[in-house]
Amino acid sequence: MNRVFCTLFLSTLVLLVSTAKGKCPPSFECGNLGTMHFPYTDTKHPHCGLLVIHGCGDRDPDAVKTIKNKGAWFYITRDQNTILFRDDDLRTLLLSRRCGVFSGNYTDLDTTSPFLSLHFLNVTLFLCNRTLNVTPPSTFSKSAICPDDIFYDTSNTDQSFSYSPSDFYYHNFNACSMVQLPIRDAGLVPDHNGNLFDYVSADIPVRAEVSHDCSSCYYLRGGQCQLDNQGKFFCAQGRYLRI
Length: 243
What we know:
The chain is α+β, with helices and mostly antiparallel strands. It has helices at about 1-20, 90-95, 210-220, and strands spanning about 30, 35, 40, 50-55, 65-70, 70-80, 80-85, 115-120, 120-130, 140-145, 150, 175-180, 205-210, 225, 235.
């Protein structure tokens, strides 16, 4: 009898533990970040979100919080309701005043997840060889802090901005390179010297946008967003219940 009882008890315990692991809390506490929600999650429930924050369980509430995206680690902080991703590599370039920081688009916050997009404010720069003597549109300012002239328009900080060489407004930039880099506040502008090193920011306010299908799967059906063996969206229900 005792052997049968022990067997039943252990089987029940395993079932309870397995079920508990599958439950997703509606929110979680993460130290000085406060209360967080989907699409964020912590390392205790990695299956419950799309962005896993490391360090939430540290006894020190001010301990470093990080997220890994495309192999790169970002420090995570919070300014009221805004989540900030800090890119240390970009910060080093900005502090060192290296013009190479303006040589390419910022792509480190592009995600590989088909269910998630990370949006942030940025400034569009046009880098033009100084010998071209470019005359920009009236809304643009010029920075001469680097060997190339850098033209920028602080009234346009939309990440979806696209430039077409056929657009007459930008035709003077046809021989120039276009670069988009993150900024922290659309209300700020570079100083009168055009110091873009202090305008471009390594502390990046991020808005995480979940796809419609994934959002419906999580919020309405209590499921987990997955891809099937043909690469199509699949809402796995019943495996990861929300508490």
